[in-house]
Design brief:
alpha/beta
């Protein structure tokens, strides 16, 4: 039932009452610009922000790049409430994990920007050390809210690709008919409503890392397209015959057992083995203390 507030009011409120997740509504470019919002996001590092935008706003490559780099996720108007609730849940889980790992009683700074002093975390830091020094695909497993995106960010930040973009796409929050254009982009006139060129996530991530969250929800048709990109290292925007070379590392995450999904025919076996070169599994959270429990994170190389 909360009413919308301005960027200035949000800064004042959050300085006294930190929030796990927040929504920024770009319902009209003339009402709110990304230049106004950037300082808000920069001064609230413990809040996960979700953008609500008019679809025509994505026609601006600069605005699209800002949204993909600065926000946990985004949704286009009109809102699909069920999808938005899922995204908010993911954002809150990620924020709670960060807060628990940065707690005042922690006593240690940890490594890779992730804080913790338990035996589980010390073992995890040793395992993560192995990942950041290899430029290979990484598949991260674990329950929703265990911090898979935080781990992906740590891998990117401490890798040789850290000077290049880290681009996030949540496969379960994008409607099936829009996933291809989000991944590959499109040319002006490619379909009704394509009034100008849109650069896709893969092209934006060129040189850096592309993090595909909830990869298990990627439709089979798009699994084939993604596999082709990983094999050929080229893409074509929708509406274009031009091939564009791309160089990126893929980091994928899932809360489901992809091997079981392969057996059930819901996930391509060849794509699974392309993604599962390095496998990292996060232990579940202790629901009472939101700390990692005594299970150990596991890492393996396929």
């Amino acid at each position: 039932d909360a009413l919308p507030i301005s960027v200035f009011e949000a800064k004042q409120f959050l300085s006294k009452h930190p929030c796990a997740a927040g929504l920024v509504v770009f319902d009209s470019p003339s009402l709110l610009t990304h230049e106004e919002v950037e300082p808000l996001i920069a001064t609230t590092p413990m809040t996960e922000w979700i953008a609500i935008i008019a679809s025509e706003s994505l026609e601006s490559p600069a605005f699209q790049a800002f949204v993909l780099s600065a926000f946990h996720d985004y949704h286009t108007l009109p809102i699909d409430l069920q999808r938005l609730l899922i995204t908010v849940g993911h954002a809150c889980g990620k924020a709670r994990l960060r807060l628990s790992l940065n707690g005042a009683n922690n006593g240690e700074t940890g490594r890779f920007g992730i804080h913790g002093r338990s035996a589980v975390m010390r073992a995890f830091f040793q395992q993560l050390e192995k990942v950041i020094h290899v430029d290979l695909a990484v598949l991260i497993g674990g329950e929703t809210g265990t911090g898979k995106e935080l781990v992906a960010q740590a891998i990117h930040k401490h890798s040789l690709r850290s000077a290049y973009p880290f681009v996030v796409l949540n496969c379960c929050s994008i409607p099936e008919n829009l996933i291809q254009s989000e991944l590959f982009g499109y040319e002006k006139g490619a379909f009704t409503g394509a009034t100008q060129r849109k650069i896709g996530c893969i092209e934006i991530a060129n040189g850096g890392d592309l993090f595909l969250d909830e990869i298990g929800d990627l439709p089979l048709s798009q699994q084939a397209n993604l596999l082709r990109v990983l094999q050929e290292r080229t893409i074509s925007r929708l509406g274009s015959t031009q091939t564009i070379p791309v160089d990126f590392r893929i980091i994928a995450a899932t809360h489901i057992d992809l091997l079981e999904a392969v057996k059930a025919g819901r996930f391509r076996e060849d794509l699974y083995y392309r993604l599962n070169v390095v496998h990292l599994h996060l232990p579940p959270l202790d629901r009472k203390s939101t700390r990692l429990n005594s299970s150990h994170a596991n890492i393996s190389y396929a």
